[in-house]
Amino acid sequence: MKKLAAKQLEMTKKTNAVKEKIRKKYEDMKRVLDEDLRITMTQLDTEHEATEKLMEERIEDCYHLTQELDQELSNIGAQVTKQEVDIRNPDTEKRISDTLKLTDPDLIQMDEFKNEQLLSLTINLLLFIRSQVPVTKKLFQSYAADVVLDADTAHPKLIISPKGDSATYTDTWQDVPETPSRFETTLNVVSQQGFSEGRQYWEVEVSGKTYWELGLTYPSIPRKGREEDSWLGRGKESWCVEYFNGDYTAWHGGVQHELPLLAGRQFTRIGVFCSFSWRVGVLSWSLIP
What we know:
The chain is of the alpha+beta class. Helix content is 43%, strand content 19%. The longest helix has 80 residues, at 2-81.
């Protein structure tokens, strides 16, 4: 008992140490992203301020020219009153032309190409991050296992694909051979091969379904008799998560456990991770949306 307690303490310390290291790495990633965001926003703000200042200078140039033109128009009015007809001023015309050219709005442009590149790089970074997270799912996928459904166990109202990778419900009772392993009262089907130890992971497509049960079972689960005896999670032989009309429920040993955090959410694929060892008599499994 002392050795087991010491081992338990050691495992707890190691787990906490790993959790702390991972937490710090996530904090580092957040700091890196926050700093990159700050630098990018600062660069964009700096260029925007420079453009605004240039626009203000051009507006000021136009304002000064307008003031000068007002003064010259006033002088021209006096000359007309004195009947002095030669009122053309080549210098003024050139100054107006130069100012109009200098203050042409089309000459002031944003660096659209650079902005598009920044946006593109940001999108690529987001796509990369999304492709890498959640990291736990990446870890689970490294334990990917093939699960082939056994048509000889399927309820007669379930049609199993030739490859054994999908099950389809039908109202018609199929003409299938009667076998001891076939479920008669519950819409169940199990895989051709099971697992006795180790870690395995597989994914199941559940899109468009209003009701499904997904889980694990020992081969000893009843196939005949009362319907309730064959339901996943209703006995000690199986575990399951059940989805019905937007609500999720976990079942084992006939005990129901509500899963409020999943309520109202709909998933297209569900991942199942199984860690099982006969040596220590432990079975743990997780459902990964």
